[in-house]
């Protein structure tokens, strides 16, 4: 999704902006642009497509000496991905970049058009720069005009504005979209996440919703609705996450292979003998909790759904899972004894964040399971358990899903212990299986080669069904989502027992069924479901530790002593299958069309 970088200082500005935007590239975008004011002169470049196009356009441009600069990668929401719609947007003397959505932009636009302003783009963002200039022309000082502008904006935004009328200043505001300020002596940086400024700034301040101000003379002035405020900088991590591909063809591939290792990190310090320990939680936090509600989107929703089986089975606590975008508008009934859990890789997903805010307003205790510390969801939650997956660059989530599921599995055991619903024997079996999970996640050459070979059969056909039962149903949903995202082939995840209630009508030899057939979870039941499909000539790819005669293709799994081990091993197989099909189809695995890594609009 959109990314912002800004800089005030003496250094060469083009490189700072392009480097910073490069770090945000993985979030997904379809155009990019930069604007610089130096010696009171504005320069601006925009390009559709990849950042290389912008780099080409700015090839002969250099900015040395003091100046201010802003840059942006845009993921189209209002208006097509064109140069005119790309940020920064120009007024007469000012430029603006913005992430989020200005909900009342049409009303503001009409007002400005009524006073003679001409708009050149279809975006909501352009309203900000014209509104600023409108007030500025009414003899307001630039900051006063900016303050008045921000006051009129409704919706979510993180925005930076520069103007020839005050050429040594960047004006900033944040509400609902992430933004931070980095400091290094007299240099000031802005960014929508910390990766662009790691290695450049030494300290950081994460802006809160409702804060705005300006950067000038090596410092910032910060305000909110109560006036000027003080703030405390914190040290910025020095680790530059320049995650390289390490010889893998794609980040997604690297991330699939990393799962075994990162899973150990997810568990580190949390498995304590025959018990589970989260230093982030205390027993008091769970006192009085008699049910769980989980909200999430996409892949995170699938890990939530899988965990609902575990919470109910092991901790005997009712658990309801909701898609965050649906939850927001259903006028949900919320009970204060319900623990509200949000799950998010990025911690910035707008729908999930808003669902969390609703639950907080209703007085629920909140817990987030997230991969990005200091993200908006983490900061909004009462408690957080970090998944420790490391930065995930592939848009199609893999290791984030694996680590989320592991944290949720551990949490279900933690609660089962707290609620005294688990016997020692079962507990020992669960912990033992957890410890063996990294093994089940290892990818060996033989397996990868086999999937590569059989993937050539699955490039056409009229669709895929991934089927499973119990926790393997959410895994089927996730397998189908992975395939859809990067192959652009139609795929659905379905509960195996539900096929006969409709979808089986689609069965013929061009319907591909990926059947998840674990030994430890309703094997005989799912076997019958797959036989029903086979009898109607569907092409079957069976994934199971048990040989299955009716399969057209068969991948034999090895870890069948516990359902979760089977779950994780099958998860890897579905990920590699999606990867290999996508590669054969010649797609951009890491940045699939139309998708963004971090979905910060609703
Ligand atoms: C995963 O492969 C997807 N790209 C997407 O569904 C993602 O899981 C969803 O947008 C939620 O993101 P989050 O975990 O960062 O909140």
UniProtKB/TrEMBL annotation:
Protein name: Glutamine--fructose-6-phosphate aminotransferase [isomerizing]
Places the protein is found: Cytoplasm
UniProt-annotated catalytic positions: 2, 597
Known EC number: 2.6.1.16
Gene Ontology biological process: carbohydrate metabolic process; fructose 6-phosphate metabolic process; protein N-linked glycosylation; UDP-N-acetylglucosamine metabolic process
One Gene Ontology MF term: carbohydrate derivative binding
Keywords tagged on the record: Aminotransferase, Cytoplasm, Glutamine amidotransferase, Repeat, Transferase
Role according to the record: Catalyzes the first step in hexosamine metabolism, converting fructose-6P into glucosamine-6P using glutamine as a nitrogen source.
Main location, first listed in the record: cytoplasm
Gene Ontology CC, one term: cytosol
Subunit and interaction comment: Homodimer.
Catalytic function, reaction form: D-fructose 6-phosphate + L-glutamine = D-glucosamine 6-phosphate + L-glutamate
PANTHER family on file: GLUCOSAMINE--FRUCTOSE-6-PHOSPHATE AMINOTRANSFERASE, ISOMERIZING, GLUTAMINE--FRUCTOSE-6-PHOSPHATE TRANSAMINASE (ISOMERIZING)
Species the sequence originates in: Sulfurovum sp. enrichment culture clone C5
Domain of life: Bacteria
Domain SIS span(s) in chain numbering: 281-421, 454-592
Domain Glutamine amidotransferase type-2: 2-218
